[in-house]
Write a structure and sequence with these properties.
The protein is about 35% helix and about 20% strand. The protein is an alpha/beta fold and about 475 residues long. About 50% of the residues are buried. Bound molecules: nicotinamide-adenine-dinucleotide. Nicotinamide-adenine-dinucleotide binds next to helix 8 and helix 14.
């Protein structure tokens, strides 16, 4: 489905004319998505401004992450962490530059701020002092990321308040920069989890997070054995992934991205979609598995298929889903049953079976929820109940499988351009697209990029959470 305003906005004359006439028409920014495969240095050549308050407990890991990923980092002359950044810049032969806090300096690809030590109301002023002069220097499709301390029961109330304040700050920044296609997000890091910050920081600064905006990511120290090293350019090498609902939309895009990250993908969809499914499986070098996930035999059939073709499974993406919309008074019982069973019941049954010996240690389970599961939606009691159920399911299952190093997370897409949203009446569809920080719908691959990130070893510290891929949708925010 094409987005008329997005296409119009790419025409410079039309854009200038609408701006010149002062017409109140939103002109969304074409988002800069990654055009290359997975690479070790996704931030090559990026100009990144780094700052912090009085202290920066995370500066070592931030400096190393940015230098390894290829970024050129600028810090102010009297920054106490300057030496740490210089050492990393030299080690990776990245030119270091001096950041000046004025609005007229060189343009910036990203702004990163370590706010994890802010602990008083007064210390929040550090945010204003650092960001105020830099906001106009952020390029189109730029990135803002704040690092914070995850809440814990032992923190003083004032520290809790200060760290909580960061979320309101970043969500507002996300709204301010969204019209230029830029995003702003926050990573909350648990006290002993800084070693697991690298993956989420790389992801949020990269062009694979274009539709993640105004969101918190919580990083915890995982239980279980340490992971072996991995190659950033083939992060899923040797892994086997199952994607349900792979024949089209988000499932097809996810299958392709998992394959390009090195995984062998088992592409599952309904037998009625066999032709389309085989085509997707062929294109990604994977295997088609025509199965209706709601049948009683489905969990065993999947386990048998994996056993027949591979030693085990590393990644499960529960993507298959349906809407059966009607207001509750008009809803037929079979519509209720179908939506709840496909979106939630089958997820639980298949996961239980695959945990019996098919999913390997350090496995990944990613379930598709929806912003409708967070906010509710008119005419979607069945769909929203099933998608809220997914949020509870990942929270409940994560601690149960943590000892095996398995992570379980949900992705909540907002408005994504697929046949699911093409079926929405035009006025509601247009509102769904525009009511977000980025003012446009996302592409299936934007969700696929987030799923792929959560599938990688780099997301080892993220479990039991829900990541919204919604462009900063105002609904349920
Ligand atoms: P889609 O309709 O394009 O694709 C869904 C796929 O699931 C289809 O190929 C379908 O055949 C398959 N499927 C349905 N029932 C099945 C069954 N019983 N057995 C096997 N396969 C089955 O949808 P999409 O937009 O790509 O959505 C994918 C997921 O993302 C869904 O879970 C959906 O609820 C969720 N989601 C989508 C959006 C959006 O804006 N598109 C927003 C929020 C959440």
């Amino acid at each position: 489905m094409s987005d008329f305003l997005l296409e119009l906005g790419q025409n410079h004359r039309a854009r200038a004319l609408i701006k010149g006439l002062g017409l109140p028409i939103p002109m969304p920014q074409d988002l800069a998505r990654a055009s290359e495969g997975f690479i070790a240095r996704p931030l090559e050549g990026h100009e990144v401004a780094f700052g912090h308050g009085d202290a920066s407990p995370l500066s070592e890991v931030i400096a190393k992450t940015l230098a390894e990923a290829g970024a050129h980092v600028g810090v102010v002359h009297d920054c106490p962490s300057r030496g740490i950044f210089e050492t990393q810049a030299e080690a990776w032969s990245r030119p270091q530059w001096e950041l000046t806090l004025n609005p007229d300096g060189p343009k910036l690809d990203s702004i990163v701020f370590d706010a994890s030590a802010l602990d008083t109301t007064e210390s929040l002023r550090n945010l204003y002092d650092f960001f105020h002069p830099l906001m106009r220097r952020l390029k189109k499709c730029g990135r803002v990321v704040i690092l914070a301390t995850a809440p814990d029961a032992k923190q003083a109330p004032l520290m809790r308040a200060t760290q909580a304040a960061l979320l309101g700050f970043i969500k507002s920044v996300a709204k301010e920069v969204g019209k230029k296609g830029s995003t702003a997000n926050i990573i909350y890091v648990e006290g002993n989890a800084s070693a697991h910050l690298e993956g989420p920081l790389r992801f949020l600064l990269s062009r694979r997070s274009v539709f993640v905006s105004g969101q918190p990511i919580v990083v915890r120290a995982p239980k279980g054995r340490k992971l072996p090293e991995w190659d950033w350019s083939r992060p899923l090498d040797g892994k086997v992934a199952l994607v349900t609902g792979a024949a089209r939309g988000i499932g097809a895009a996810t299958s392709s991205l998992l394959a390009s990250a090195g995984a062998t993908v088992i592409c599952l969809d309904r037998p009625a979609d066999d032709g389309l499914l085989s085509k997707v499986a062929r294109e990604v070098g994977g295997m088609p598995l025509p199965v209706d996930i709601t049948t009683p035999e489905a969990p065993q059939a999947i386990a048998d298929f994996v056993a027949e073709h591979r030693d085990g499974l590393d990644i499960i993406v529960h993507n298959a889903g349906v809407t059966r919309d009607k207001t509750l008074a008009r809803m037929k019982p079979e519509w209720w049953d179908q939506a709840v069973d496909i979106n939630l019941g089958a997820v639980e049954r298949i996961t239980s079976k695959l945990l019996e010996g098919t999913l390997r240690d350090h496995g990944r389970i990613i379930c598709l929820s929806s912003v409708a599961g967070i906010a509710g939606n008119l005419g979607q009691t069945n769909y929203a109940a099933s998608k809220s159920g997914i949020l509870g399911y990942v929270r409940g299952l994560a601690p149960v499988v943590a000892r095996r190093g398995i992570t379980v997370n949900a992705i909540a897409p907002g408005f994504i351009e697929t046949r699911l949203t093409a079926a929405i009446p035009v006025v509601i569809r247009e509102a769904g697209r525009r009511l977000s920080n980025l003012g446009q719908g996302g592409q299936p691959r934007d969700v696929g990029d987030a799923i792929t990130f959560l599938s990688t070893p780099a997301a080892h510290g993220i479990t039991g959470t829900t990541l919204r891929v919604c462009g900063g949708a105002l609904i349920g925010a």
